[in-house]
Amino acid sequence: MAFVAVAVGIFLLIKGGDWLMRAAVALSLRFSIPKIVIGMTVVSFATSAPELIVSIQSALSGHPDLALGNVVGSNIANLGFVLAITIMISPIEVTPSFYRTDWPMMIFSSLLFYFFLVLDYQLVAYEGAILFVLLLCFMVYLIKFQKQAVLDEAPEDEQTLELSKTMAYLVLGGFSLWLGSETLIKGAVSLAQNLGVSERIISVSIVSVGTSIPELSASIIAIINKEKAISLGNLIGSNIFNILAVMGITAMIHPVAVEDTGLLSNDIWWMFGISLLILPLVFFPKGARLGWIDGLILITLYCIFILPLFM
């Protein structure tokens, strides 16, 4: 039953996030908000909604390891699992914005996140505020100086929905996110107890992969439909958002303490390692692209990270 609860929770989060994004984009278009701003703000926050709601609910429910593990695990899964499978199916070209802005910002955000946690083994309100303000500054910089890179991530479907349908999506999305997070957290706690492992292990493995499914499905659908090139910026941007927005907002609402030290002694170093590895993989053996060999390396590392957690 615990596993079913986790699966139902993940499904509701995915549907809720999708409905919320449709409503948010439709409202933005209705109020004539520029497409470049929609891509950077509305879409980015909507796609991070499942991680955000799960982290806030986990912290408020007294399960901080689920909140932290979800973000760290999602960042590992985005690169070691989602990116790996994507480039094993079809190679992707890497734009200069990756090594000029996206990757350096991801590494800096990760380091700042680690520094705040290792100081006193918790993330408090003022640290969350610093993370969130850093995100706002980064978004302003992107909109001002990296307009083309931002436009590449903007929504392509510009059809404005009827107001009644928009409101229905908004209500359904919000309700699904709330119910999904409640179900997922209770299921994850029960699953950890049943398997005799910590909540941290469930969150960095099963929960984080579940909340990364939308990114994976979007990437595969885009490959099948031969749509615009899959952008590495999507996944790097998701990692930046997970730290600066999800952890920033969660900490401002409720302090997040580290209970299972394995998060700092093991998991976060895997997050650093895979994040750092992306840069040399982009340039070797062929410049500015990622292919199936790189994907094989990443998925192998991901398996090496996940499997020992349950042994």
Layout: helices, strands, pairs:
Elements: H1 2-30, H2 35-47, H3 49-60, H4 64-89, E1 92-93, H5 96-120, E2 122-123, H6 125-145, H7 147-152, H8 163-195, H9 199-224, H10 232-253, E3 256-257, H11 262-283, E4 289-290, H12 292-306
Antiparallel strand pairs: 1-4, 2-3
Level-2 CATH architecture: Up-down Bundle
Q: What ranges have pLDDT less than 50 throughout 5 or more consecutive residues? A: none
The CATH superfamily label reads: NCX, central ion-binding region
| CATH topology description | A middle domain of Talin 1
> What is the CATH first-level class name?
Mainly Alpha
Secondary-structure-derived class: mainly alpha
What is the terminal-to-terminal distance? 22 Å
- Distinct helical segment count: 12
Average predicted local confidence, pLDDT: 85
How large, in whole angstroms, is the Cα Rg? Answer: 18 Å
Number of strands: 4
Shape: globular
What is the spatial order of strands in the main beta sheet? Answer: 1-4
How many structural domains? 1
